[in-house]
Design brief:
By secondary structure, the protein is α/β, with parallel strands linked by helices. The protein is built from 16 helices and 14 strands. It binds 3-methyl-2-oxobutanoic acid (KIV) and zinc ion.
Length: about 525
């Protein structure tokens, strides 16, 4: 376990906020089981600080922080808190079981946020900084203070608040680019300004937290590190509010690949990156865009003939890092129905999955079922299959039991006969609709009445051919809250219903989050 007060001056602390800011992505929500899986993954890959949630935001968030605090031993577990006493106390209570805990308290410091959002004077905000840090220090000596909308804050006031936060006991000072407004040079100058002007800055670590509204979150974070910041806040796959946060995998691989110009270290096990990306994508239902740096499906693919020719001669011609360095296997061995358990488990390992025994057995059973339906089982099929397994949670309130669809050119409306298990009770219905998907979704609505609107229905074939698995994404919206569900199956209708049910289960979790002001961080 690293003691942050005693580490090399070039070491950058990796603070992951996938479970907090990441979960604030529109359409995203994770249940407890999913959050625990992600937290264990982050711990295993060497993340220094895991921001597990915002304890006061909802009973679900409180429980998530509390459970993560119980199971994570190697990383610091952190909860966000606004500056009020109730927030700080809730964070402290949720973090109580943690081996190492951090309270992260924040308040807006920009003129716009103070006058319009908070309706507080700068003097009142300054007092709230002192009070919240002081209160947090009663619970732990690891306190982080953030100046929300820091990059649009007047320099004199920012320096005054930082100096007071450090005096009150904060050991990490975060200057977020909350609205993704800054640019690298300006942000670096701000970090240098704070380091030059705040007299007690040597008693704290400077942190950065960048949003990606202008696509500059990673560039801004790296510029800040070069200027002296030594903690970067980031998320797996760059998920987060609006356009997202700086992506962990891009920060870490940029530091690793260009250590010649950015000689800063971190403890991330980069070969876990692909695995982490897949897990987060599976539990959130957010597919990674194919051209996403580091973890996109095309990140290591070479299409142009000239590039392929170069790579065959020497990979370094067009590859600045190896696929293996991010945990991506080059083994494209295709499996089929004669492939045995050993080959399948090896393949899981190559693909970066580290499953427990039960999950491995289940995945093998599903692989065999798939191999009966599909001659060649490609890597993409196995990824879809395992991710689908990850998305099915024992605690889901709604489960698909059976589905029959009737449709065609005969002049009868398409019909769906469906059985769902709702809170342990199996219910069935026959429903009609404008098409088979509509009929199936109407059946779900009859069995589990709800008012959510379908905002997105998207199907994509995992591989080529008519026997390919369909991967379906469904987005539902209810009272301004959106959730994504995803599922894969060789039967497009089954995948569609499973994706809808997945989204509905997530919506039920999200309904609990009833503290809108708490979610505005
Ligand atoms: O973007 C932001 O300002 C935040 C803070 C709460 C750190 O998420
Ligand atoms: Zn943020």
């Amino acid at each position: 376990m690293t003691n942050f007060t005693d580490i090399d001056s070039d070491r950058v602390i990796i603070f992951d906020t996938t479970l907090r800011d990441g979960e604030q992505s529109p359409g995203c929500s994770m249940n407890l089981e999913e959050k625990l899986k992600v937290a264990k993954m982050l711990e295993g890959m060497g993340v220094d600080v895991i921001e597990a949630g915002f304890a006061i935001a909802s009973p679900g968030d409180f429980e998530a922080v509390n459970e993560v605090a119980k199971v994570v031993k190697d990383s610091v577990v952190c909860s966000l808190a606004r500056s009020g006493n109730m927030d700080v106390d809730a964070a402290a209570e949720a973090l109580e079981p943690a081996a190492r805990k951090r309270i992260h308290t924040f308040i807006s410091t920009s003129p716009l946020h103070m006058s319009v959002k908070l309706q507080m004077t700068p003097e009142e905000v300054h007092q709230a900084v002192v009070d919240s840090v002081t209160r947090s220090r009663n619970y732990t000596d690891d306190v982080e203070w953030s100046a929300e909308d820091g990059t649009r804050t007047e320099h004199d006031f920012l320096c005054q608040c930082i100096e007071s936060a450090i005096k009150a006991g904060a050991s990490t000072i975060n200057i977020p680019d909350t609205v993704g407004y800054t640019v690298p040079e300006e942000y670096a100058d701000m970090i240098k300004m704070v380091m030059n002007r705040v007299p007690n800055i040597d008693k704290a670590r400077l942190s950065v937290h960048c949003h990606n509204d202008l696509g500059l979150a990673v560039a801004n974070s790296l510029a800040a590190v070069a200027a002296g910041a030594r903690q970067v806040e980031c998320t797996i796959n760059g998920i987060g509010e609006r356009a997202g946060n700086a992506s962990l995998e891009e920060i870490v691989m940029a530091l690793r690949t260009r250590a010649d110009v950015m000689p800063y270290t971190n403890e991330i096990v980069t070969t876990d990156i692909t695995k982490a990306s897949r897990l987060v994508s599976a539990v959130t239902g957010f597919q990674v865009q194919p051209n996403k740096a580091i973890v996109g499906a095309n990140a290591f693919a070479h299409e142009a003939g000239i590039h392929q020719d170069g790579v065959l001669k020497d990979k370094r011609t067009y590859e600045i890092m190896t696929p293996e360095s991010v945990g991506l296997s080059e083994n494209k061995l295709v499996l089929g129905k004669h492939s045995g358990r050993h080959a399948f488990y090896e393949k899981l390992k190559d693909l970066g999955y580290d499953l427990g025994d039960n999950a491995k057995h289940d995945a093998f059973r599903r692989f065999k079922e798939l191999a009966d339906l599909k001659k060649d089982v490609f890597d993409e099929d196995i990824v879809a299959l395992v991710d689908d397994e990850v998305m099915t949670n024992a605690n889901d309130r709604i489960k698909l039991v059976s589905l029959e669809i009737m449709c065609g050119t005969v002049h009868q409306p398409p019909k769906a006969k469906m059985e769902l298990e709702v809170d342990g009770e199996v219910k069935s219905v026959d429903a009609t609709g404008d098409g088979p998907v509509d009929a199936a979704f109407n059946a779900i609505k009859e069995l589990f009445p709800h008012t959510a609107n379908l905002q997105l229905y998207q199907v994509h074939a995992v591989t080529q051919g008519t026997d390919a698995q369909a991967e379906v994404t469904v987005r539902l919206e209810e009272n301004g809250k959106t959730v994504n569900g995803a599922a894969a199956d060789t039967d497009t209708m089954v995948a569609s219903v499973k994706a809808y049910v997945h989204a509905l289960n997530k919506l039920l979790v999200k309904r609990e989050k009833t503290a809108p002001a708490a979610l505005s961080a």
